[in-house]
Amino acid sequence: MSQLYQNKKVILFELNEETYGVSIDHVVSIERPQAITRVPHVQAYVKGIMTMRGLMIPVIDMHKRFNMAESLETTEERIIIVEMDDIMVGLFVDSAHHVVDLSPSQIEDAPDIVGGLEAAYIDGIARYEEDKLLVLLNLKQVLTTNEVNDLKKIEA
Amino acid sequence: MDTNQYLVLFIDEGREHLQNLNDKMLALENDPNDLSVVNEIFRSAHTIKGMSASMGFEDMANLTHKMENVLDALRHKQIDVTPDMIDALFESIDHLEAMLDQIIQGQSDKRDVSDIVRKLQALEKGEAISNDSEQSASKSKNGAVESKSKNNEHGALNETEWEIVSKAKDVGLSAYFIKVNLTDDCMLKAARAVMVFQAIEGQGDVIKTIPDSEKIEKAEFDLTFSFIFITGESPDKIKHDILTVSEIDQVEIDEITQIKAQENIIESHHQTEKKETNKPKSTAPVQVNKTIRVNLDRLDHLLNLFEELIIDRGRLEQISNEVGDHHLKSQVEKIHRVSNQLQETILNLRMVPVETVFNRFPRMVRNLSKELNKKIELVITGADTEVDRSIVDELGDPLVHLLRNSLDHGIELPEVRKENGKSETGTVQLRAFHSGNHVMIEIEDDGAGIDRQKITAKAIENGLITLEASSKLSDQDVFHLMFASGFSTAEKISDISGRGVGLDVVQSNIRKIGGTVSVESTLGKGSRFTVKLPLTLSIINAMLIKLGEETYAVPISSIVETMLLRQIELKTVNKKEVLIYRDAVVPFIDLRNFLQVPHSDSEASKQAVIIVKQSNNYLAFAVDELLGHQDIVIKSLGNYLKNVEGISGATILGDGRVALILDCEAIA
């Protein structure tokens, strides 16, 4: 599992004061919050749709995606545009700051539950900058399966 | 030789020639005596042979060569056109198409064609096709040089070679077709062949060898090789010189000029005989348009850039309205006009005639009518009607299905037709034409028509409607049931249609490209299916509406009328709000509810009503405000949000916000 992140650069972002990481390979850009148009008949965690360079990009509210409590609006909020398997979405997060280099030795397999997050969404736990911890997201899981099934249910 | 760079060209031209073969074969079937058509078929086959041989696709070259032999015998009136022959030639074309498909998929052109090769060889000799397996065993030595009639070998001469031959004749030289047979026990075939060429060296020029010189040098031939020799010497002298080489069994020499002359005679004879029909075909000057081939990606990219321009134009217009400066306004208007023309031009670039879809139908109808034992004539009109490329790509399958449907369910068997006082041959009309901002495609047959009783019975059986409801339905509504999913009235399941995935798939495919399909029918007289398509998919004119704080776009093409809420009178039927419009009861839908728009405090709600037309009924939408109409660029919501109910896409407005486009067909 964790080989995905071996010697990889990872973009760090915050959700409810917890730090998460997503491989820079999948990150297209990081945007400031902008006008997002609500879309009816979709999952509650789909915040809406925004546009970037002529493309339509659905935005996922990561708090709602992981059933976390909503946090207050701040000026730090960012939208991380990620792309994977022909799917491009924006992840709405509390803040996104820096990039870290992770070597395999820093990465451990995830315990069952981390910060209330199901293991399926997690690729591993990494230590960085001596005493800090971050959760490596399993982006594929975040973007596919559940949503696809749920959406199909809605259609039917 | 690196042939990869030519592969694309080969595939393009191969397709064109195969299509031409198909078209011309159908023409030949209609008029078997038209030699000019045979000549055209021959030319296309010949070109394919040449192209495939130079690309190294030997099976393809071989098969076309065999076809050529038959065609050559035909045009020299050695054999006559027979239905078997037409079938065999069509079969060959099918094989060639399959080979081309294999090549497109990056495979080789290898394909078992021994069966058809045997048929062609039998035809060439004027024999009836037999399915005798012994014959196939003895004759299917694929590609081996066999005892073909001599004329056929000359047929392999290309234009330049003919030119050389005729020039040689002008200066008093003669061209000979020389066939050399080596003895059975010849060990060094290549060496003998080289010695033959040495023996006649200096007496003239070899302009072509069969097989080509490379293969001769590698001894890649059976015991026979041939060549064309231009010389001033007598045939006897040449024959004598060749026979000085040992291990030569036999030498045949024929003069070529006669053949050419013979061909001319046939052609001139033909022209006098059928002046009206033949002459325009062979002598009318061909109008040549200057064209270039452009990669589709580039056109798509151009369109993408243009779409960005349209969005920016919208922004600019908004700013100019806010600023209110006259100079700015007039300049923005100029940009508006120029970009409108630009839009038209760019969209025109992407237009292709529906012919590209239609041209496979004559063959399909021919095959199907044989299979069904029906006599059917397909009449195509408006094949030059142009549609956006992206639409054409999606149009093929639905049309195939509708056509099959007409052939299978519409047109009756010849006996039945006769009994009903119709001509035995049924007619299916395939029409395409422009109508306003739409392209219409109609498939009309003069067959049995749709039986209302059968449809309702089936619909009741499948639980689509109830018995009580069925009597209240208009004919239109009943026919529309055929497009419901899981509906198929075919009594027996055939290969052609009636597999249960019928018209509902047609409808959903056509909806996907923004079109609608409808049907009219008169029992006993026939049916007509009409497909209505937008001219282009990417830029449409839309009405912008306001719902609470949100803005949505409704395609103008869906809107029948807009009015103010106070102008209409709402009634309640079955606890649902309706209004009477044009004598119809129209459901009144509160779009705010349907689209789950958050409540706002503004009092300005529900001021206007939009009447939209679905394929066979009206709907009324209550909206807060109409914001006016403008050109919008349709964008897909992407792969993450597929098939959002009631939404067909999104667009970017002048202020950079995203507005969703309503799919009026999907709201109920």
Give a quick precis of the structure.
The complex is a heterodimer of chains A (156) and B (668). Chain A is mainly β. Chain A has helices at 62-65, 139-143, 146-155, and strands at residues 8-15, 18-23, 27-31, 46-52, 55-61, 78-84, 87-93, 95-102, 107-108, 113-114, 117-118, 122-128, 132-137.
Our Rg estimate of chain B from Cα atoms comes to 33 Å
Largest sheet of chain B: 6 strands, mixed
Task: Report the helical percentage of chain B.
Answer: 40-55%
Terminal CA distance of chain B reads 62 Å
- What coarse outline of chain A follows from CA principal-axis ratios? globular
Q: What's the assembly state of these chains?
A: heterodimer
Structural class of chain A: mainly beta
User: Given the structure, what is the number of helices of chain A?
Assistant: 3
CATH architecture of the largest domain in chain B: 2-Layer Sandwich
Query: Per CATH, what is the topology of the largest domain in chain B?
Result: Heat Shock Protein 90
Question: Which ranges of chain A are low-confidence, i.e. pLDDT below 50, for 5 or more consecutive residues?
Answer: 147-156
Number of domains of chain A: 1
Question: What structural class do you assign from the helix and strand content of chain B?
Answer: alpha+beta
What is the tally of beta strands of chain A? 13
InterPro entries (chain B): Bact_Chemotaxis_CheA, CheA-like_dim, CheA-like_homodim_sf, CheA-like_P2_sf, CheA_P2-bd, CheW-like_dom_sf, CheW-lke_dom, CheY-binding_CheA
Modified residues (Phosphohistidine) (chain B): 46
Organism (chain B): Terrilactibacillus tamarindi
Protein name (chain B): Chemotaxis protein CheA
